[in-house]
Every structure is written in C-alpha cells, then in structure tokens.
Amino acid sequence: IADEQTAGRGRLDRKWFTPKGTALAFSLVLRPTKEEKPFLSRVVGLAALAVAETLQKLGLAAQIKWPNDVLIAGRKVCGILIESVWSGEDVDCVVIGIGVNVLQGAVPPGESLLFPSTSLQDALGYPPERLEVLHDILAAFIDIRQQITSDEFIKDWKNLLAFRGELVQVETNAAPAIVGSVTGLEFDGSLQLRNEHGESITVRFGDVRLRPLA
Ligand code: ATP
Fold it and tell me: Which one of 13, 71, 107, 113 would you pick to mutate in the ligand 1 pocket, going by the greatest count of ligand atoms within 8 A of its CB?
C-alpha cells in the first residue's frame, strides 16, 4: 500500500494520480488455486465487485464501468489494473492494483482527465477513514472470491454494470469504434452489446475504452 504514487499507472502506461494522503493505492497478489485458474479473466470483476459493493454499503450507488473502473453517478472513483505473472505456460500469480479516490484532493485537475472523476468525500459529503475503506474492500474481496467460479458471480457483476440498456461506444486500437447498448456479460466476463441491427456483439478484454454515447 502506498500513501502517494509519483509514477502511478493505469492501462497501457496511462498515468494514475495518487497525491499524498488522499487516496487508497494498493496491490493485492492473488495466487490462484487450481479451481480458480480457468476463471482468471473474472479477476477484474472480482476486484471491481469488491470495491463497488463496499461503496454501496456506504450508501453510494456505485457501478462498474466495464472492464476496470468503478463509477459513482457516472464519475470515476476507482481504477483497477490487472497484471499476470507467468511461469512458462502457467500463471503464477495475478497482481491486482487498485486506486480509490478517497478525499477530494485525490481527484486530478479536470483538464488532464479523459473521463470525469470524483472522490468518496465528494460523493458522501464527509471524509471517510481511508483504512476503514481498505478493510471493507479486503473483506468483500475475500468473501466474493469464494464465488468466482459460480454463475451467481457473473450475475452479481452484471447487476452492477454501468450503462445497462444504454448506448455506449467502445473504442479499440484495431478496428472502428463499436456502438451498441450494454446487455450483459459472457461466461468469461466479456461484455455483450446489441447493435442497431439487433445483433449481439461480444467485446473481449484488451485495449478497449468504453464511453457513454451522450
Ligand atoms: P478511461 O477511464 O479513460 O476509460 P482506462 O480505463 O483505460 O480509460 P485507466 O487505465 O483505468 O483508464 O486509468 C488511466 C486514466 O485514468 C488516465 O488516463 C486518466 O485520465 C485517469 N485518471 C488518472 N488518475 C485518476 C484518478 N486519481 N481518478 C480518476 N481518474 C484518473
């Protein structure tokens, strides 16, 4: 756990801001069991669910912006970065980086952001105790981890998806942006959209960025 990050990063080396004393910035090292190994693509959902459910218990309507962010009222309050460590063909461990904007001071200046952001303090109207939030996220993580192989897990993840039934645009590096409404999740956690022709489209993990189509 870090009190400050001077070179925090998101996906593809995008910068993640953690000014001193204002946020939670921590990494969890998950050593998957044999049973969990076929479900590693769900780990980002496990982390997002642990954060979103913790924020919901604080009375906040937190939602998951697939694949790796947690939002409150459409604003980003948490970013998650998953990296796997391989030994040959086998995954040795998964490093789960989680950043949560706890105090107002954690929110980066507007012009440097590609997506609107907020903090728990802004959303709650008072500054929560950082370590209590950390404790609750860890407790939720341990609890939800036990269900990672179940169908219930995907259902819970789907129920917390932001923009369900709404039109979004998904940008990838490889192809033109996909536009569709969010319908759900595949077994592996990939995102399901329905396009304007009523066709079902699956968006896989990777370099994808999801935006509401305002
Ligand atoms: P996006 O959130 O724009 O859809 P992404 O999910 O790929 O993209 P991440 O890799 O999760 O983004 O995070 C990096 C981005 O998050 C940065 O480009 C910056 O715009 C934004 N960011 C950086 N620090 C914070 C912070 N403390 N709170 C909210 N957003 C931040």
Answer: 113
pLDDT by residue (tens digit) across 54-102? 999 999 999 999 999 999 999 999 999 999 999 998 999 999 999 999 9
| Residue pair 1/25 in contact by the 8 Å Cβ criterion | yes
pLDDT, one tens digit per residue, over 165-187 is 999 999 987 778 999 999 999 99
* Whole-number Å distance between alpha carbons of 105 and 132: 18
Q: Tell me which of 115, 119, 122, 130 to substitute to probe ligand 1's pocket, judged by most ligand atoms within 8 Å of the beta carbon.
A: 115
120 close to 100: Cβ distance less than 8 angstroms: yes
Q: Which two tokens stand for residue 121?
A: 């303090």
Ligand 1 environment, Cβ below 6 A: 10-11, 14-17, 68-69, 76, 79, 99, 101, 106, 108, 113-115, 117, 209
Tell me the residue type at 185. L
Q: How far apart are CA 94 and CA 44, in angstroms?
A: 10
